[in-house]
Fold these 4 entries.
Entry 1:
Amino acid sequence: MGSAAERAIELILSADRELCNILSVTGRMSLASSLLALLIGLPLGVWLGACRFRGRGALLVVNRTLMGMPPVVCGLIFYMLFSGVGPFRHMKLLFTVEIMILAQVVLITPIVVGTMESYVSAIAPGVRETAKGLALGGGRTLALLMNECSYQICSAYLLAFSRSIAEVGAVSMVGGAIAWKTNVMTTAIMQYTNRGDFSLGIALGMILLSLSLLVNIAISLLQKGVSR
Amino acid sequence: MKKTLSLLLVLAMLVAMLAGCSSSTTAETEAPAAEPTQAPAETVETEEPAADAVVVDTKILYEADESMLNTYTLIAVNPDAPFTDADGNPVSDVAVNTAGADALIHWLLSQEALDLAAAYGVEDYGENLFYLLEDVPVYDGEIAAATEETKTIRLSTTTSVNDSGLLGYLLPVFQEEYGYTVEVQSAGTGKAIAAAQYGNADLILVHSKSQEEDFVAAGYARTVDGFDSERVSFIYNYFVLCGPSADPAGAAECPSVKDAFAAIAQGKYTFISRGDGSGTHTKELSLWPEELGITADAESFADYTDWYISANAGMGACLVMAEEMGAYILTDKATFLAFVANGGQA
């Protein structure tokens, strides 16, 4: 472990070019995919949580099933779809960062939807009552609701980001872990482990965890700000 | 019909859960009984002085046997191959960068690249990692420079080539000189070939003759200008049989490598198999005595699980495993030398 920590520090201090590339691809992929997932998942989650309509139960079951989708299965589906012989081959997306983001969005959007839905459905009756008492219109009721769950939105985003940065099964399938192009932290760790270079793998793991820590601290501060 | 099916499913799940529970309870009841006897042994072990210098115990026991020849072959993918999608329907317009694949094969077979490949490893390990085939068809014609459409080349190769560092050493020279970008995906030979069959590679660099011949026979290969055959073999090295330095099976004294494998099987000494359909795995399967009937099929070695370990992992990870378990293993020499040079960390 000692040598792994040393190697991690050495790698960061030397600003290794390949490491910088891996970090930038990782950052691009996990930020883009978690933001996109939030953008899609937030309205869906609020809608499912706040409104009562026919088929809502079925949608919830579908969403919960998708929450449990094994990443490697998601990766496999995208691989087959965008493969050189797949139906979407003309888009030439296989082994690009874009398709990694796409696969990640499919994986993590259900998680955002799920967390938002369970929170919103718990607070919605109270908010509705308050809105009725204050005679607020639809738009302002929604604003009130969103204000109530701003803390939860941060948590949902954090969950999405963490899942995205830590995921390996899907991104290694569709990204191919190509050096200088689609190699992210997790796939690089896999590669070094497969080669038997465990200490470099742990070194990268330490860097990944520190990155995660930084993002978590930032969002926690933001969360404190919004809940005040 | 549906109802009975779902009922059956629920029943099966219940049975599985019950079986799981009962086996775990027996394991729990067994555990305390086993613990007292194990505990003292453990403390004795921890009191022993830990070796401070990392010494790799695994060593080469058998090498340079004719049957251990490991030849690497380049094959360009045929854009008009009978590609099929996942459902088996034919697909015709698969994009394959033929010009790029040609340029890379031409360059790899040029005198310049062959000289580089032949010298690889001497500096780092004091030993050649690859040798040139005697009848290698040297290419001395024109090599096309990259254009906007052809500049990205998708090379699907095996982990052993990639892990040996050969491509990282050769490709930058090519990319610099001709302006291409080579995207390397590495996996076991089986998966590397599958990637090409799914239209995700422009050329492959693999080392498993039988699988290559199947690939060519199925019409996925293309003969590159300037060569006679679809399969362009150019470099080789040897597989080596490694094992613990004590060599309990006496593999090093066997007259042939097949006898060494027979001795390992006879004495049931632990053997780590790649088990991942790689070229190394295919070679290993061909070396066992035929009466054992070991194939890539998991069923075939179900009776040998006490000594035959199918790891389903990369070469480096398997070497670490062999070192930990004091097991025998078949490996390519390049990865093994890198593993030893790094003190057992490939």
Entry 2:
Amino acid sequence: MPKLTIDGIEVEAQAGMTVIQAADLVGIEIPRFCYHERLSIAGNCRMCLVEVKPGPPKPQAACALPVADGMEVWTQSDLATKARKGVMEFLLINHPLDCPICDQGGECDLQDQAMAFGSDRTRFREVKRSVTEKHLGPLVKTAMTRCIHCTRCVRFIREVAGVPEMGMIGRGEHAEITSYVEEALTSELSGNIVDLCPVGALTSAPYAFNARPWELTKVESIDVLDAVGSAIRVDARGNAVMRVLPCLNEDVNEEWLADKSRHAVDGLRYQRLDRPYVRENGKLRPASWEEALATVAGKLLSTEPDRIAALAGDLADAEAMVLLKDLLDALGSPHRDCRQDGAALDPDDRASWLFNPTIPGIEDADALLIVGADPRREAPILNARIRKRYAMGGFPIGVLGPAKDLTYAVEDLGNDPHTLRALASGSHSFWRALSDAERPMILVGMGALARDDGAAMMGYARRVAETAGAITDDWTGFGVLHTAAARVGGLEAGFVPGPNGRDTSRILEGTANGSIEVVYLLGADEIDTAALGDAFVIYQGHHGDAGANRADVILPGAAYTEKNATYVNTEGRMQRTWLAVHPPGEAREDWKIVRALSSAVEKPLAQGSLEAVRARLVEVSPTFAPGNEGQVVPAEYSATHRGFSGRLDSAPFVSPVVNYYQTDPISRASRTMAACTDVYINGKASADKRTGTDG
Amino acid sequence: MSAAPKTIPGAANTPFAFTAENQVEAERIFAKYPVARARSAILPLLDLAQRQEGWVSRAVVEAVASMTKVAPIMVWEVATFYTMYNLEPIGRFHVEVCTNLPCWLRGSEDVVRAARDVFGVEIGQTSADGLVTLSQAECLGACVNAPMLQIGDDYYEDLDYDRAKALFTAMKQGRHVNGGSQAGRRCSAPMGDLTSLTTDPTTPEGGRWTAESSPAAGGGADGPR
């Protein structure tokens, strides 16, 4: 453990650390542009120059200088400051003075550092260089004249995103950052290079010229557009969400955010349900809350309880689900399900539907089998964690499923479900790799579980885990990767069929044949609405999507940025969103709607406040205890699962996420996501071909 | 040095494969490096491909990338970093005239003028018949024989307008001209008689320095005789 002094403060650093890391340990901030703690060290911006003794009598780059015992470092000495001023002068030589029209203005590292080290006048009399804009896809806008060639974007795209498509071409004065043949970046994490860019060379295209950072109110919340539950910051101006940025959460998303989670938020402005609607003579017409609730109550009370059912969708929060469950119980209907995709998840066996290894636990695993999942599209952040583990080496990955282009090298086990049986019986070659590992991991996706033979899939997958040694006292290597933010919360809150209740497929069977007459859709849009038959459909949700289109009554709810709500991610990590803006128009928070409806049917629920609803959640499942917020509540894996039944179908696995950019009502309403769909899914040339006059 | 092209010229793209002979050579080059360092072969493979094709096309970049198992952008970075890879098609002969200071002082402008007169091209252009591409080169390290130019692997030195014109005319007529000094001197020996080492250096008269003759040994204040 080398000891060194930085600005007179003694630091005990770990061997192999560099000076800038040691300085970060004690809170001494050395200015930097190219250095980033999650990327490889490039050492090319020279902004972190410090004075070091013993050593040559010249400043040295702190980011690339390993610590040594007895080293003395001065970060603020005359030599270091003068050197940094020189570096800054060189950086500013070719950097345009366009801060007033630059989107990075106000949150720009170069701007900040120039305040500290820049000169107020230039000695450069020559012509500044200009660089043509690059086309990096619909999400990243470029102004490459501003680029200072720190190569953070190049390193991120190669190392973290795992799609080596960016590079620096040319050299010296003519160096330019570009993607290969200027193709759009194919990464689902490409938005992060905007955050990484220390200047305004890469900015968010959908957010271009929309707001200044000091105009925004910033609320830390949770993303719900996949089942990972990334920490986000919602930036709003007035009552409009302007953008979403990632927040630091080492246990979930580190500091990255997937493109859909970041850029689908413009969907919050379109297709919104901002007032109740009632269908009259086949057409939906605006109605008052009183009328809508009275219509629903009348229908619920005039229908036999056994002919009422409810389905919860992918974005439903736990508060609304637990109240709706209680309301159905009060009405006497056991028919409800939160698994709108029909996934074979046993509500009573918590360990069978959680991602037990946890996301940070991926780094502890030493072999991985992916069954029927496409983590790159279903959960890009989790996929980045798998790639991080892969990059550490010694991590065989076998993929039995539809997608092999997961940004890391995989052993292709084909796409035949029967291979899973071979793995379960130990007769497959990859089983050996799993059983040789100390902490093997089996990741099962909805592509395997949400199909008719899902129960058998689950059984075989668990058997693989059990026979390959993935279940030990200190390691549960069996994990289910969910695709919906609401799913685990719904299972925890008990939004599953009660005694003799129907599950999703039997509810839809019932609506088709008339044995279910009233269906309550709590944001459920991903079902086959044609199967709803002649049933009376109540849709509670925030977007005019498939469910609302079919609805007979629409109760407008709130989106995740508009309510304080509880979600549980795929690991079983309970997290809460915070209200950043208010629901539009007459829309209300979802639990309040259910509560109001309970009064309308004269079976009022006791919970009159959010605290009371959350107390009810704790009664239902200890996962929701306030102390568990942000924590994974581990599940006890009950070994030897014998009770599975059914035969494996030989149809190949299909991931439920065919189009990553449009998976839920919000992203389907988003114009940005539509543009991404055009470029990445339909292969059209980007619509935003620049004219050269757009600034 | 001109700026790197903004994009790889896709329209001018041609399919690429090493010839059978070059394929053997490419495999020999590839085998020289450890598997984990396969990207070390990028430079020599690009050179080999350029010798075959005359330039580095997108197809060349992708072929070398797949051979060295790196992303095409990484090969493209290398190809754009070095000035000696031609990123656009060139003529049959690549005439690179040094115009750095020593050659310029010795009349490199006359060489450029000769090229203009014979081929009708300016620097950076390819002649209409596709015979030559004229480029400006930075110092090629043959200043003692300035002005000079490079065609392929050969240097042509001691040029002036007439000698350059003769060289270019010969090229145009398809005649071979040997490389080296066009003034007839050997390497960079003096143009006329020797100006130094005019005596046999191994004799004391020739000025051979010995320990005895050094001033420190008292061999004489006037140094070597």
Entry 3:
Amino acid sequence: MKAFDYTAPVTLPEAVGLLVSQPSARLLAGGTDLIVQLRSGRKEADLVIDIKKIPELNALEFDPLAGLTIGAAVPCYRLTSHPVIQSHFPALAEVASWIGGTQIQGRASLGGNLCNAAPSADSIPLLIALGASALIAGPGGRRTVAIEDFCTAPGRNQLATGELLVSMKIPAPALQSGSSYLRFIPRNEMDIAVVGAGVSVSIAGGVFTAARIALSAVAPTPLFVPAAGAALVGQAVSPAALEAAAQIAQSAATPISDMRGSAAYRKHLCAVMTRRALEIAVTRAQEN
Amino acid sequence: MAPKVQVQTTINNEPVQFLCEPRQTLLECLRDVVGLTGTKEGCGDGNCGSCTVKLGDRIVTSCLVLGVEAEGETITTVEGLAHGNTLHPLQKAFLEHAALQCGICTPGFLIAADALLQQHPHPTEDQTRFWLSNNLCRCTGYDKIIRAVQAAAVEINGAPQ
């Protein structure tokens, strides 16, 4: 690795100040993307800013009204083992246990997964489905961006010079709501999604009252498909309703062909994974 | 070259100070600076798990940690498993079950399995395989490793209820 300086600020203003004065600096949370990129030369840095010593970026808090706050640097293993996440957001605990393996989860953060902005990122479709938002801090103060608007292109995101992700906020789950993320991978672990589907549904009296559906690995950015969720609202829970939503999700996808699968195969998987994810989310909603 | 940084850690229950450049990984620091060569480098990008160490309360691939990040941390490497000349039950089980051939992956498997057994005293085969999915072995075909870990679980924690 090329030489760089290292600093670990303990406050957000300090971190923002460093980013403003040295725009080529790179932020380090878990390092599972950054250190690989620095070593391979895909990215360079004169300064690496370790953000893990900033308390707000390590926050993991649940409030029944405000919902869940996940600090940008919180590693996955803290999510998989968190009792409130296991009970209120089981899909989130699952996705955190599917990113990399045990060792990667000891370091990798959802904030990093989001900022890295890979089209195949596992956590992003679920965060979109859960209606999450990103809190950003920068020289101009703070702003909030819906997760579906955060990624702008493969590897690119909304963050402007001097800005960093502080946390992700997920609304508290509504009564009779459930969510799920499913991905298709050729093996059972340690793999990158061929297609992933994140969904959430709310049900009252056997009728969908809200639904959000997003896909991974089928577009340049994680893909929010509002029409697929909207098609469920007002419908009675039925296999036909799920299938109709899955077909809308599929039609929104614009996948490419690559080593992981052809575009046609990915298209097919979009409907399959969406429908299966919806089935799980419905079951969870009916149990809540 | 960036100036070297002094890092204060606890490694295998001993206070250890070392000097490193910010660009040096914890793996490089352990092997080349501290002289603990039990931890192995396989892929160098977090896929193979050979360089697994315990860092605080979780396991990590030390090739994806900067040495400077270890400031104030507690680290366990494979050298910290045995008590003097008495092997750790996992080490004994790996020998008894022939769960290694070339041995490069073994230190990583031992540290990862030790963390597994601390969280799950009697892991199922599925749990064991899933937990160890970040550790690659090109010799054994894994079955012997899984059996060794399950035997060690019984040795350490008794027969499951």
Entry 4:
Amino acid sequence: MISQFFVLSLRGDNIVFRDYRGDVPKGSAEIFFRKVKFWKEDEEEEAPPNVDGVNYFHVKVAGLLFVATTRVNSSPSLVLELLQRIARVIKDYLGVLNEDSLRKNFVLVYELLDEVIDFGYVQTTSTELLKSYVFNEPIVVDAARLPPLGPAGMFMQGTKRMPATAVTKSVVANEPGGRRREEIFVDIIEKISVTFSSSGYILTSEIDGTIQMKSYLSGNPEIRLALNEELSIGRGGRSIYDYSSSAGAGVVILDDCNFHESVHLDSFDVDRTLSLVPPDGEFPVMNYRMTQEFKPPFIITAVIEEAGTFRAEVILKVRADFSSNITANTVAIQMPLPKYTTRVSFEQEPGAVGQTTDFKEANKKLEWNLRKAWFFQNF
Amino acid sequence: MAPPSQSYKSPSPSQPSGKGEVSDLKLQLRQLAGSRAPGTDDSKRDLFKKVISYMTVGIDVSSLFSEMVMCSATSDIVLKKMCYLYVGNYAKGNPDLALLTINFLQKDCRDEDPMIRGLALRSLCSLRVANLVEYLVGPLGSGLKDSSGYVRMVAAVGALKLYHISAATCVDADFPSMLKSLMLHDSDSQVVANCLSALQEIWSLEASSSEEASKEREALLSKPVIYYLLNRFKDFNEWAQCLVLDLVSKYVPSDSSDIFDIMNLLEDRLQHANGAVVLATVKVFLHMTLSMTDVHQQVYERIKAPLLTLVSSGSQEQSYAVLSHLHLLVMRAPMLFSSDYKHFYCQYNEPSHVKKLKLDMLTAVANENNTYEIVTELCEYVANVDVAIARESVRAVGKIALQQYDVNAIVDRLLQFLEMEKGYVTAEALVLVKDLLRKYPQWSQDCIAVVGNISSRNVQEPKAKAALIWMLGEYCQDMNDAPYVLENLIENWDDEHSAEVRLHLLTAVLKCFLKRPPETQKALGAALAAGLSDSHQDVHDRALLYYRLLQYNVSVADRVVNPPKQAVSVFTDTQNSEIKDRIFDEFNSLSVVYQKPSYMFTDKEHRGPFEFSEETGGLSVGVESVENIAQIVDANDKDLLLGTSEEEESRGTSSDGSAYSAPAYDSASISLTSSHAQSEPVISNPSLPTYSAQTSLAIDDLLGLSLSSSTTSVPPPPPLKLNAKAVIDPGTFQRKWGQLPIALTQECSISPQGAAALNSPQVLLQHMQGQSIHCIASGGKAPNFKFFFFAQNAEASASFFLVECIINTSSSKAQIKVKADDQSTADAFWNLFQLALTRFGSP
């Protein structure tokens, strides 16, 4: 149960503000924003804060703060999930979610909010169901101008992704020409975390993945999604308690996974097929997590030499460990540098094309961007 | 810190602030109100949009109320919605105008289109105007019986809204029972869910006043209702599922087959992508199995993987919320998570509050098998650029060391930290090495070798400095230069701002003296002198205590400061297990994230439904289960040595000191003007100052430090003997001061040295006390001090002397007024007093 919902821009403007229960004082948005400002300076973020018995929840999506307040001791994951969903529903409707599109479409957003929450209780967050209650037409905002929320919204921290432009289309807006295109987008997004020791040995490796789907199909057909048949969930077959067993080559072992509610798992145990009737809008079909050993796509080695009292030389090498007919796009390498670093000079391997290097003074980070990467590169 | 909100706002064109725009809008709305021309709706839409955008940014557009209502006669649903939104926002402030809207809202409630009926009903109930409730009952009643699920859904929440506006109206109209029958029979699952939330809220609010309501509330938790809801579980959407799960988690199953039925039914919910559903399910599982220890453990095993998946998917904020819950579980049953320690490794780009939780968990799950790897990982974090995390990591390593696993390797690591030459790392490590030594004295050789190399000048933080000093004192025999390091520190006594450090310094130097007297004598003298003139009461008292101890008997002093110590086996836990259990009971709520139970951060009326019944035991989770929790927590407590009591050592000695009942004056709390009243609690303390005249050692004595007590010079007994243990309560003092005539008024000078030494009132008080002249109140700041003294004739107990003494240290003059019960002895007393005062500060 929530009391208020509002969206703040990063400057603290109220873009949307809806009070559901009237038990939280009016200035809450401002109180919250002051808190946020304060964190930014201290770089200490404590979520969610509690001021005078009012609990503030927020999620940051596409540079906007989606905030909910409540006085009761409610479930944090429920409220946070809800905020995330609201953002997704709004994005489904507007096509692009950013400050500009929100401002232009705030009436539509209010209309959505009215149906999503009533007196603080969640009614529905399904884009599909909401369609029959919402009548405003979205005003389309030019997507190219602003960085949109990629389907990889879940990995927003530190990663920049280039989503296909088609995915920024509203689920309700019609194509110019009046005919809707029958399309469905399926993205597989994986976050790979690998830690190397200084000697190149892999200390930890983990993959967090998600299968995202965004459907523009009319008539809601059933879709079958076949996964690798060698897939097994939980280590050592069905038992997640047994951590000792190992599996043969080619077998993909997921530590764990979860599914969207529209997914039917009836035949999953037999042939690893998911069947679902995709609802409109964007949603994760499946999230999974694995710690099975795998070959990391890149290997980075860094050699640091002290070249004099006030100078250090860093040699960074990146080796791409996949076949040469695949290229990786938009590779960015960051390296935190000591606080007292004043100047950085770069030297690139001769013949390097499409590479940029930069030293970010503010957060003392070195950035090296490669538009394309393939086998073996040095820096 | 924050400028007014206006300054955040961008000067965007959509945000005018003037009144001009509002009155413009008013005009335009008027023109459109009556118009029937085609295209009116479009221009109305534009105008309405403008109004709403003003409303959002906080401009008051309530003056447009009547115009908006006039324009609302339209069939355009988008317009209607905007109008409803506007009305809902401003009706509360304009109850009279709100009446205008009733008419068209009521009409809309009878519209053909269920959508419009629903919308109108929702807006009608959202007006929040008390005197309009009579208009609500009719539409709500028919709304609840509407053929459309949408309208019934709105009406169910509408009944709850009505309850909040006027509880009596809602109950009188019998809405609760209508909601109940809807909940149990409606075909639309969202209607059922809304009825359930409305009923939960209504009945738990009613329960305090009506017995029937509390019975009804209990009935929600009865087996038929729970089974009914669970059987329809798949129909509910994910949010309604959370609601039902929350209810189920409070249900007390009748037997174990009941429990297994429910768990089997809900098991697939653990694979849901919505974290809220998963956590709610986890709560059901955990609470149901509390009484079955083995199953409870299996539940932990089962929920581990889904929770870890949730942590790694979802937004940062969500994963923090889930991680907090995982943290709670790890803390309750660390051994069950000991093989998953790699999941708690920090990633460099995680925010620091996440890292903190993870460090906590890493510390908790450490056992014989994984300690080495965990500590290796933690050592990496120590070099982290984030200072707070680096500190936490050092502390985590120390905590693991205190858990007794593989201490050998850890001690080496800790000692490496000491040599890292980073101030904060050294500081944290010092504190830990100290704790470590208290628990494992056998490591002293290795530690001392390293600690001895640390220059005390590089240690700035009070805690670390105190730890270093403690070690210097405790192991002074093993550290060659300990006395000299201490001496250096004492030389800089005045620059040392932390009282804790000064206290430790006193203790350490005494310990050192008792073991290596010749080298430390000078330092001890300086330390005691500095301590006695210290403005901090505790420091001063401890110095005095040590001084007297030494004077009394050196071997007793040795027994006090260097008693045979037992290694500390268990450090006290910081959070008691009752609170932990409370938080566990409130699983899947903010309590877990804040790590405190809900009563600490929510108002009473906002506690969730059923909160009260849990307290009264009407809904006990089962007595045996509570015991079970206690056992688990006990077991944890044994393994986990969370928290370290810093001051155990010093507490021991200071409690010894209290036997000597140090005077408890606090110069800061006693102001000149209200001295009598404020000093009352101090003086009426039963343990009054009990110094004998014998202990009246002039400070100069201390500096010479002749240790044998025989050298103490006792002043010749004066002709008038004063009672050294004189007692008077402030009330009596005040009364006497008012009644008695002034016996003498004198001015005398005090010695320049005395004036110079009088930098705080305490110094003089000690001195005068030595002469059996006690102070009842004192105050002032250099150069002006004011004292009220009193003394009692030892021969005639009813004969008191009262003195008001004003001292100006810059002119070294004192103005004294003496009053006495027995006027004849006043002169004799004056002589004594003057003698005492002039001696102050003289060598």
